[in-house]
Write a structure and sequence with these properties.
The chain is mainly β and 80 residues long. The structure holds zinc ion (ZN).
């Protein structure tokens, strides 16, 4: 039995880097593995690049099979 009022909050800043996490983000990005964020230096789940954008989720909420970012960084690439 699952209590629908309980939401699972995941804190990825404490997980070791290099852990493969396959899933989906609320943005449509797919996650790949944990890594250290170049923006803030904390660990998080790194997504694959999509439309020159990459998201690193440091803290998120699991909704079904989607990870919704609560605390995350956006990386944008302007290099081609
Ligand atoms: Zn970050």
């Amino acid at each position: 039995m699952q209590d629908p009022g309980t939401q699972e909050i995941m804190d990825y800043t404490t997980v070791p880097v290099g852990l493969v996490i396959e899933g989906k983000l609320w943005t449509g990005h797919r996650t790949s593995s944990t890594a250290t964020c170049p923006e803030c230096g904390r660990n998080g789940v790194m997504s694959t690049w999509m439309k020159r954008r990459q998201i690193i989720v440091h803290c998120g909420r699991i909704e079904g099979n989607t990870l919704v970012g609560i605390d995350f960084c956006n990386l944008e690439s302007d290099a081609t």
